[in-house]
Amino acid sequence: MTQEAHVTQGPLTTEAGAPVADNQNSETAGVGGPVLVQDQLLLEKLAHFNRERIPERVVHARGAGAYGTFTVTADVTPYTRAAFLSEVGKQTETFLRFSTVAGNLGAADAVRDPRGFALKFYTEEGNYDLVGNNTPVFFIKDAIKFPDFIHTQKRDPYTGSQEADNVWDFWGLSPESTHQVTWLFGDRGIPASYRHMNGYGSHTYQWNNEAGEVFWVKYHFKTDQGIKNLTADEAGRLAGEDPDSHQRDLREAIERGEFPTWTVQVQIMPAADAAAYRFNPFDLTKVWPHADYPPIEIGKLELNRNPENIFAEVEQSIFSPAHFVPGIGPSPDKMLQGRLFAYGDAHRYRVGINADHLPVNRPHATEARTHSRDGYLYDGRHKGAKNYEPNSFGGPAQTDRPLWQPAAVTGATGEHAAVAHAEDDDFVQAGNLYRLMSEDEQARLVENLAGFIAKVSRDEIAERAIANFRAADADFGKRLEAAVQALRG
Ligand code: HEM
């Protein structure tokens, strides 16, 4: 009997499996009298209903997911010993959850916001999660600023709405955001669907090969559907008419057998290059220009199966940047380092200590063999096996081989800012991005920014925000200032 037949055939029952006589009328003391506590079915239904929700993700609450396949198309064994990347043609099952960032669970999809691109590879050496976005960079470069940043994107404690004052106050006072904000208010800031956008690992990660050599890598997932975006007006209409537009588009495309694909590329930097590179290679507000490290194609990602149950497989799915496999590891990027803590902590709070036992989260191509036990909703999977190590009963033991190579460090502990390399400042890459845009795109960028900046209540907040774009490019600043003045009068 299939699982579905198991729960749909036969009489209706209580949670404990007893047959239900009447699911329409609760039990009362006499005709027209008060309801009885002995009506277990009523109590159980009301109590279960009250507990249907778990806390939504504090960011990226709104999302959609699909399973798929990753296929290796190039030999990357000179760079990494990761088993799932070991052979051309090798395939690995994946699960990808797309999301928006700021909106709550029920928010509309067609909004100006980065899109999450969280990808789980179910590899034979454990699950490898690459928890990225559709943007190659981010607003800030130190995890200590993340809660403050997100507070400005979410609802204001007094008004209960997102406030232009908070957003522009923070961005204006955090000039390192200028690059990502320029990106976000450009044409790619509102993708037409999850299928029509790229994904990026964004951070720099470590790859290490059999010989122990280290490479720094950045991942790119280039959509094979082509980039398609919405204008601010189109998005405004669509968000009202079809709030679930992205989620529906993804599900329906897969139902039609139109499986979306992405070409997977990496930029690879030999470890020895890092110290003298013109930009700090671990600064998340910067890209590595392709002329410096050309992207190399390494694989194909296809999404080909919808989840059967959104709550079980999408809402309860967990992704962590700390889920590495042998041959892949973190870089010293200060944002990434903060994320290595934040996600596991969020999962323990949001889904519970045994979240990684759920079907969508557990390894599919190997077994998890830990000595951790028990906790809420533990299913007894380890039966009577010993729960400590070392043990003399044939239990799982350590391998003595770390997943990644050690990183050299220097100096004293302290609250150090990210190191500035020769060409690093907060504006250089934002200016380059602006100058890369066509005249039409620049005009739309200025209009999108001005429309939002014009809403702030204080001139000094608007002026500070504009000054950052002026520092990126004088023409950009001049046009933006004029556009904001025209709107503010
Ligand atoms: C230090 C900075 C950051 C912190 C502390 C942070 C924290 C979090 C937390 C707590 C969640 C919710 C996790 C859950 O409940 O399952 C989350 C989700 C997410 N974050 Fe971050 N985040 C940071 C930066 C970033 C960056 C830079 C990216 C992309 C490059 C990113 C991409 C995502 C994605 C895609 C999700 C949704 C994962 C899913 O679909 O379940 N985050 N983040």
TrEMBL record:
Entry-linked SMART domains: Catalase (SM01060)
GO cellular component terms attached to this protein's record: cytoplasm
EC number: 1.11.1.6
Family matches, as InterPro entries: Catalase, Catalase_3, Catalase_AS, Catalase_clade1/3, Catalase_core, Catalase_haem_BS, Catalase_immune_responsive, Catalase_sf
Entry keyword set: Heme, Hydrogen peroxide, Iron, Metal-binding, Oxidoreductase, Peroxidase
Domain Catalase core, residue spans: 13-397
Catalytic reaction list: 2 H2O2 = O2 + 2 H2O
Pfam families the record matches: Catalase (PF00199), Catalase-rel (PF06628)
Catalytic residues of the enzyme: 60, 133
First-tier enzyme category under EC: oxidoreductase
Cofactor (UniProt): heme
Family affiliation: Belongs to the catalase family.
Protein name: Catalase
Organism: Streptomyces brasiliensis
Gene from which the chain derives: katA
